């Protein structure tokens, strides 16, 4: 390069680039101050600003501010004026890098630089607000020549006090420029753009600015900047690497002197690559387009770093950075996820993905034969493609343990298991642990983990299905919910496992009749846990047995259930004064589907003594010995309230009545919960065979009989007069009393104030009735 004399008049060029855009009016006051995280740092060759993208999703906008106004930092204007604006949506931020020689930047002696920006944020309602960012950076002296290769522009600056080249070192194309400059009669600043193999073009700095070439003068340097891909630029291969080169010569004729500055910028066009482990970038070992004249450049230093700062050698080693200097090229590489870059994980199509972004900073110091140093700076954003990490599951179940064990692998270190869904039932990991499920996290490698879950075959959420006789299929479908921390972005994995188990048969009871009831017995089998034993719709438990009066014996080998006659669950049929049949049924119910899969029923004949049966069909059947309370009474001369309703059978002491609840003068009373049906056995013409007093026909002896039903089970009976009940009623017999004829009135039934407690048939001691199902208290009150 060659320098002549630089006049103070060059300072007029400071306004050339900055005057290219209209200034804006004074900024309005902000409506509010957004709470947006921001980072502002002075780097070696630029100011770095990073602003998080707000929840509204609107990208922050920047305006550069100086004494002349505010200037939006658009893509094109930023490249022209030394601003690099990068939107990183996956990282959730926007970065701005501003060259120390950018437009609108205050410059004091090329040592202290002052920046001011307005940052605009648009809220979700489309309303703009902003805040100001100002920063002053003090930097060490720049090298005599600095070439900067940014993402969107090339910039070269040279000191204006460098010595002129000797005649022998002047390059041919520079000599041609000198001839043009010497022959020019124009005293304004001129720019000659030279493209290899084409004729040079000379123009004013103003015209050059309109073409995208910007020249400015600082207190001690001349700066030239342009975007990539200009028509005066050329691309050439240098040691196997594509390099973009642009050459500009600035000259000014004043009296007998010509001032000339040769400005050359050259940047590697290598975009970088990723081999699965490292990000790599190449550049020529010596950027020969920067050579001026026949002199040679030698490389004295190569360094690497990130975010605009070169790190020292030890730090580079610690981070795994590598610089390989070969004879013709230099390769810089940074390992995946190394310190200094940004690793981002995200979900794409329900698969965990990650990428790694790094702002590679490369610096090389070149020295020519005169000892003049050229510092070559490169900032190159490199990123890996999205790298998927699909999770996988392995069925590790062993039938001997009768436990499903599922392994979920390839889980990155920034992911945690939030919940599992077992056959549609979602359970958080914490709740699962409290419920006794085993969920273990184990290490797979340096940065991945696995989860192992264990679920017993007999778990409440496992689906059990009969495949064939004696063969049962267990199925478990798991939906794993995984969250990426800290953004709590969820993704899912689905596992389905099954197991076939032989010899799974619903339990069947052996049964036998006894004098006082029915006895059931079964031996315990291996797969009994698959079924519940039920009486009707109620599961057989020790509590239920105690409440109903069953006798339950359950040891390690055998279950025995003795069901006394007249306890809950019997069905009575073919009732006569001599005998009746009682049937009791035990059901085997699938614990998962609640379907009844096997029945063990026993029908036995019993001798009739006394009973009162209230059926679901609305029939009350009573057998009672009337002579226990009215000696010498004639059973054949009894009736119900409707005297046409006479006994179906009698013997010397007992009567048998069987009648519908809507017949024979039966009365009823209903409240919000229960219906009471009541009739009376009336004794007529009672007499004695001995010498004691004979009772006349006008005297009446009455025995009250009652059936009580829950109202919801018989509610339709009052519409169609057809009795229907879901469950048998409760029967009571009230001992007869003598009532004088003059006080005989229709019976006033008491209001029900408690719930009854017994489904079933007869008893003379209502307090003996136990709580069963919906019934919650003894019915002593209603037996009175």
From TrEMBL:
Protein name, per record: Uncharacterized LOC107597052
ZP domain sequence ranges: 613-784
Signal peptide bounds: 1-19
Pfam families: Ig-like (PF26562), ZP-N (PF23344)
Species of provenance: Sinocyclocheilus grahami
Keyword Signal applies: yes
UniProt KW keywords: Signal
Keyword flag Nuclease: no
């Amino acid at each position: 390069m060659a320098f002549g004399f630089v006049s103070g008049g060059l300072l007029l060029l400071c306004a050339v680039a900055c005057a290219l855009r209209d200034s804006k009016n004074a900024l309005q006051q902000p409506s509010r101050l957004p709470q947006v995280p921001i980072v502002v740092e002075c780097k070696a060759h630029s100011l770095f600003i990073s602003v998080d993208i707000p929840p509204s999703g609107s990208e922050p906008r920047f305006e550069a501010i100086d004494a002349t106004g505010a200037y939006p930092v658009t893509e094109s204007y930023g490249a022209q004026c030394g601003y690099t604006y990068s939107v990183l949506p996956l990282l959730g931020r926007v970065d701005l890098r501003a060259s120390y020689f950018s437009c609108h930047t205050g410059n004091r002696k090329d040592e202290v630089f002052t920046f001011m920006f307005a940052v605009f944020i648009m809220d979700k309602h489309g309303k703009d607000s902003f805040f100001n960012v100002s920063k002053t950076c003090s930097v060490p002296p720049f090298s005599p020549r600095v070439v900067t290769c940014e993402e969107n522009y090339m910039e070269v600056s040279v000191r204006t006090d460098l010595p002129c080249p000797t005649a022998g070192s002047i390059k041919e194309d520079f000599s041609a420029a000198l001839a043009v400059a010497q022959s020019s009669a124009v005293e304004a600043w001129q720019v000659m753009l030279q493209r290899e193999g084409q004729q040079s073009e000379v123009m004013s700095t103003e015209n050059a600015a309109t073409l995208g070439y910007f020249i400015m003068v600082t207190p001690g340097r001349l700066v030239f900047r342009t975007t990539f891909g200009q028509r005066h630029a050329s691309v050439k291969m240098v040691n196997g690497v594509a390099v973009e080169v642009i050459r500009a010569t600035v000259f000014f004729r004043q009296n007998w002197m010509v001032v000339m500055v040769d400005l050359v910028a050259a940047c590697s066009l290598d975009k970088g690559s990723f081999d699965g482990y490292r990000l790599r970038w190449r550049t020529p070992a010596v950027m020969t387009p920067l050579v001026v004249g026949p002199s040679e450049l030698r490389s004295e230093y190569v360094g690497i770093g990130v975010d605009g700062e070169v790190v020292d050698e030890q730090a580079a080693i610690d981070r795994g950075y590598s610089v390989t200097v070969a004879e013709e090229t230099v390769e810089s590489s940074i390992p995946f996820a190394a310190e200094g870059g940004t690793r981002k994980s995200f979900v794409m199509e329900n698969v965990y993905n990650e990428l790694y972004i790094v702002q590679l900073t490369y610096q090389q110091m070149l020295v020519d034969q005169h000892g003049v140093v050229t510092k070559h700076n490169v900032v190159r954003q490199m990123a890996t493609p999205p790298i998927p990490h699909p999770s996988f599951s392995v069925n590790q179940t062993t039938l001997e343990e009768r436990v499903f064990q599922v392994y979920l692998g390839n889980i990155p270190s920034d992911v945690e298991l939030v919940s599992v869904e077992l056959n549609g039932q979602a359970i958080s990991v914490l709740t699962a642990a409290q419920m006794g499920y085993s969920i273990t996290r184990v290490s797979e490698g340096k940065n991945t983990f696995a989860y192992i879950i264990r679920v017993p075959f007999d778990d409440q959420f496992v689906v059990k299905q009969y495949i064939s006789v004696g063969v049962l299929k267990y199925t478990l479908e798991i939906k794993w919910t995984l969250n990426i921390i800290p953004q709590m972005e969820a993704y899912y994995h689905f596992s389905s496992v099954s197991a076939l188990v032989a010899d799974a048969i619903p339990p069947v009871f052996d049964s036998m009749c006894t004098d006082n009831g029915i006895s059931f017995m079964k031996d315990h089998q291996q797969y009994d846990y698959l079924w519940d034993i039920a009486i009707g719709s109620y599961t057989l438990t020790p509590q239920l047995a105690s409440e109903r009066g069953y006798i339950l014996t359950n040891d390690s080998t055998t279950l025995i259930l003795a069901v006394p006659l007249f306890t809950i669950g019997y069905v009575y049929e073919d009732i006569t004064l001599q005998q009746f049949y009682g049937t009791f049924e035990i059901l085997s119910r699938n614990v998962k589907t609640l379907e009844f899969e096997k029945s063990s029923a026993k029908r036995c004949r019993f001798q009739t003594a006394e009973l009162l049966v209230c059926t679901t069909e609305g029939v009350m059947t009573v057998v009672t010995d009337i002579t226990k309370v009215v000696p010498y009474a004639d059973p054949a001369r009894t009736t119900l309230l409707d005297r046409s309703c006479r006994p179906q059978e009698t013997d010397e002491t007992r009567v048998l009545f069987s009648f519908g609840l809507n017949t024979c003068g039966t009365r009823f009373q209903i409240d919000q919960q229960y219906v009471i049906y009541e009739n009376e056995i009336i004794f007529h013409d009672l007499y004695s065979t001995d010498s004691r007093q004979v009772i006349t026909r006008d005297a009446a002896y009455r025995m009250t009989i009652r059936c009580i039903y829950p109202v919801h089970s018989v509610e339709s009976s009052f519409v169609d007069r057809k009795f229907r009940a879901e469950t048998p009623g409760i029967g009571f017999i009230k001992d007869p009393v003598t009532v004088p004829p003059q006080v005989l009135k229709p019976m006033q039934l008491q209001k029900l104030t408690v719930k009854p407690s017994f489904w079933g048939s007869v008893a003379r001691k209502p307090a003996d009735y136990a709580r069963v199902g919906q019934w919650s208290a003894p019915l002593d009150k209603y037996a009175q």
